[in-house]
Amino acid sequence: MTEKILIALKSIGKNKNRNFLTMLGIIIGIASVICILAIGDGFAHTVTKGMGDHNTHNKVILQWEATSDYNTDGGFTSNDAAVLEKIPGVNRVKLTSSIVEAGAKVQYKTKHVSIGLNKQPKHLKLIKGNYFTMDNASNGIYISHDLAQKLFKKNALNRLISVDGTIFVVQGIYSANGMTYRPDAYVSKGIFKQLFASQLSRDEVKMYIQPDASKKRIGKEAVKKMKKMGEQKDTGRYSVSNPDQISKQFTKILNGITYFIAFIAGISLLIAGIGVMNVMYITVSERRKEIGIRRAFGATASDIRNQFLIESVVLCIIGGLIGIALGYGLVAVINAFLPFKAVITTYAIILSLSVSTAVGLVFGFIPSNKAAKSELVGLLKEE
């Protein structure tokens, strides 16, 4: 096998330019597949990671939805939470809101801007200023770069702004253009709870359950109890939220789109395969003398077929390796412009090499078989 591979490399090296042009289609096709899969995998990883922030491990989320537009401020009460805590398998219950931000109006001198704001997160990457956890009574505020541009032309740090009549000091500026959603501003948890939390209806309940408890059973029992005892049962309906299922469905759809686009890119590999077949036909025609001599010295039809088939496969694998290297370079460039990081996975590499090998086998077989079936007498007569 090693000897046949060396012969194939030597043969490919004799016609570098022609073989490189033949490999060009494979190189472009494989590089395209690598880039498409990397972007798809990177996007899926980013989105599922974001969904993972709503970790549902050992947690059941119950939601309330108003049946009328006139009752949108309803939800769960402390009495509802007490009922849910009595369900066997539930450790504790927390009332939350599906709305991620409160509304407010910001004023700086004569400028007025309507914004959405929330309590500060644990981590926040700033482009200006230093991030730290503010105490509950702090009047500091972190604002987005877009809001800073609307209010101030420059030097937004340490400026005083009014938010719904309360004065805040700008502590830092962050970018809100990434994949993770960001409101226009963040304030301390204490201030948010004191001034803005009343805007958010408690339309969700997070039930933290015991590790061995059945999420399905607890969810069904919780809905049943709320339909019977919930204080807002007449103005809304209760259901179990299942972010895990949403995440799985989203990933499934995204993978389908990625594979479809990769399939389209694979068409270039089909065209490249036709080019490989063509060049192998030319190679077989050019080397009929060599085939005749080898057959005269005892080489079997199988030896001849395998030799040209290996040459076809080696040609495609070399193209595939160059395509993978080109794909790495393109993904590095693409990452400079994407709001998320494209990721080249191991399976993308394996898939690319498998496709390259398959192209060599499929499109190299017919020319190789033709060479194997050449009659010795005919070959010698040509000489």
Tally of strands: 11
Molecular shape = elongated
Strand content: 15-25%
| Major β-sheet annotation | 6 strands, mixed, barrel
Secondary structure tally, helices: 11
User: What structural category do the secondary elements indicate?
Assistant: alpha+beta
Q: Could you report the average pLDDT, rounded to the nearest whole number?
A: 83
Q: Describe the strand arrangement of the main beta sheet, using strand numbers.
A: 3-4-9-6-8-7
Number of domains: 2
Q: What is the string of SSEs from the N terminus onward?
A: HHEHEEEEEHEEEHEHEHHHHH
- Integer-rounded radius of gyration: 33 Å
Helix content: 40-55%
- Termini separation comes to 29 Å
Low-confidence spans: pLDDT under 50, at least 5 residues?
none
Protein name: Permease
GO cellular component, one term: plasma membrane
Membrane topology: Multi-pass membrane protein
Keywords: Cell membrane, Membrane, Transmembrane, Transmembrane helix
Structure, explained:
- The protein has helices at 2-14, 16-52, 78-85, 145-151, 189-195, 215-229, 243-286, 288-296, 301-335, 346-372, 376-382; strands spanning 59-66, 90-96, 102-108, 111-119, 126-129, 140-144, 160-163, 166-174, 185-187, 204-209, 236-241.
- It has 383 residues and is α+β, with helices and mostly antiparallel strands.
- It has two domains: 1-50 and 247-381, no CATH class; 102-199, no CATH class.
- The strands form two sheets. It has a six-stranded mixed barrel. The protein has a four-stranded antiparallel β-sheet with strand order 2-10-1-11, covered by helices on one side.
- A hairpin with a 2-residue loop joins strand 3 (102-108) and strand 4 (111-119).
- Helix 7 crosses helix 9.
- The longest helix has 44 residues, at 243-286.
- It is elongated, with a radius of gyration of 33 Å.
- The model has no long low-confidence stretch (mean pLDDT 83).
- Keywords: Cell membrane, Membrane, Transmembrane, Transmembrane helix.
- InterPro entries: ABC3_permease_C, MacB_PCD, Macrolide_Exporter_MacB.
